[in-house]
Design brief:
With 373 residues, the protein is an alpha/beta fold. It has 2 domains: 233 residues, Aspartate Aminotransferase, domain 2 (3-Layer(aba) Sandwich), CATH 3.40.640.10; 121 residues, Aspartate Aminotransferase, domain 1, CATH 3.90.1150. 39% of the residues lie in helices and 13% in strands. A 7-stranded mixed beta sheet has the order 1-9-8-5-4-2-3, sandwiched between helices. A two-stranded antiparallel ribbon has the order 6-7. Strands 10-11 form a two-stranded antiparallel ribbon. Helix 6 links the parallel strand 4 and strand 5. Bound molecules: pyridoxal-5'-phosphate. The site of pyridoxal-5'-phosphate has 14 residues, from helix 3 and helix 4.
Length: 373
């Protein structure tokens, strides 16, 4: 069979999922309903956290986590220079200052050895990102947080199914924030989940995600009777999105195994001195399969011409986006690995619709391209 097109991502949406969404749509109860509860319960079971709360996006979850920490102008938060800008925007929204740290060259995760140098009296928290599904060294990170009394938030947008020492990511600090954007492991269109093992913290998140109202809809004695005690937001997920997420999560374990199998296949076929990649890690969830090559942009064009969907995570370190550059004027010398990462990394598809035949096709093209260079 000829392979015509290989998509970068593929959503696992079955007829059963569509029928569940359709049932919610016809039910007359479209938000904070049965599926929201089911999805939250199933999610906390999957990641083994005490609490899980649906939100409208991972960005919203990160923002709420920063708000629940009471971050404000004058505070500083340390984060990696390589991530989606959502990670730093969440800090900015509160008025606090994001303090960028360079990443490790091949993992793209925050370089823990550089964190201590950035800690000042104003530092309140650390946000880590588990890049491409590879967990950060949470032992070292927790030690630093404990030593300097910093709060820890995990950006787990790439991390569903990622473990560190057999513990699911998102459980190491005050909260873990997940994304269900369509390219992610599971999707609700837009959407996210905040997990926590701290009751007080998760209650603050719940309140802030729904206008700062004091009484949950299920606990109101009179409809419409409540008080507003905080300047909250509307960051809720709809119930039909929750239905979509719930059913995909039920199948996710099987899909995760395929991602891992695909990562092993890439390692088997992509053998060249001109390619660098991370050693296979059984605890990684392989959001994508990342490699590092010279002439990356030329290779992207070639793969695209051959109908192979790829991506770059991310083509610029956050401090060099115009908004952050104008505001903080970060110097390039301190962010060398982030610059390497943004110029050389290439994200290949690893999802459950990729198979050995497709991987061979991708690898052959890459190896031919590199041999000719
Ligand atoms: C590392 C990281 N954090 C946060 C986000 C934001 O996620 P969302 O689109 O669900 O707000 C993304 C989005 O892709 C991401 O890659």
């Amino acid at each position: 069979m000829k392979i015509n097109k290989i998509n970068f991502s593929h959503n696992s949406i079955s007829n059963k999922d569509i029928s569940a969404v359709s049932k919610v749509l016809k039910s007359g109860w479209l938000t904070h309903g049965k599926y929201t509860n089911l999805f939250e319960r199933e999610f906390s079971k999957f990641v083994n956290s005490k609490f899980a709360v649906t939100v409208s996006s991972c960005t919203a979850g990160l923002h709420l986590s920063c708000l629940a920490l009471n971050l404000k102008k004058g505070d500083e938060v340390i984060l990696p220079a390589m991530s989606h800008t959502a990670t730093s925007h969440a800090i900015e929204y509160t008025g606090a200052k994001p303090v960028f740290v360079d990443v490790e060259k091949i993992s793209g995760n925050i370089n823990v050895n550089l964190v201590e140098k950035k800690i000042t009296k104003k530092t309140k928290a650390l946000i880590v990102v588990h890049m491409a599904g590879f967990a950060c060294d949470m032992n070292k990170i927790q030690k630093i947080c404990k030593k300097y009394k910093l709060q820890l938030i995990e950006d787990c947008a790439h991390g569903l199914g990622t473990f560190f020492s057999r513990r699911h990511v998102g459980n190491f600090g005050l909260s873990g924030c997940f994304s269900f954007y369509p390219t992610k492991h599971i999707t609700t269109g837009e959407g996210g989940m905040v997990i926590s093992n701290n009751l007080k913290f998760i209650n603050r998140i719940k309140q802030l995600k729904a206008f700062g109202i004091d009484t949950d809809i299920k606990n109101r004695k009179m409809p419409g009777k409540y008080d507003v005690i905080k300047l909250g937001f509307n960051y809720r997920m709809t119930d039909f999105q929750a239905a979509l997420g719930y059913h995909q999560l039920k199948r996710f374990k099987k899909n995760l195994l395929i991602r891992k199998k695909n990562a092993k296949l890439y390692q088997k076929y992509l053998i060249s001195k001109k390619i660098q990649f991370k050693k296979y890690d059984e605890e990684c969830s392989y959001f994508v399969y990342q490699i590092f090559v010279k002439k990356r942009n030329e290779l992207v064009k070639l793969l695209k011409k051959n109908n192979i969907g790829v991506s770059i995570h991310y083509a610029k370190p956050i401090p060099f986006y115009r908004f952050y550059r104008n505001k903080y004027n970060y110097r390039k010398e301190n962010l060398e690995n982030s610059i390497f990462y943004s110029n050389k990394s290439l994200s290949l598809p690893a999802h459950h619709q990729i198979n050995e035949k497709k991987i061979i096709k991708i690898c052959k093209l890459i190896l031919k391209f590199l041999n000719e260079k």
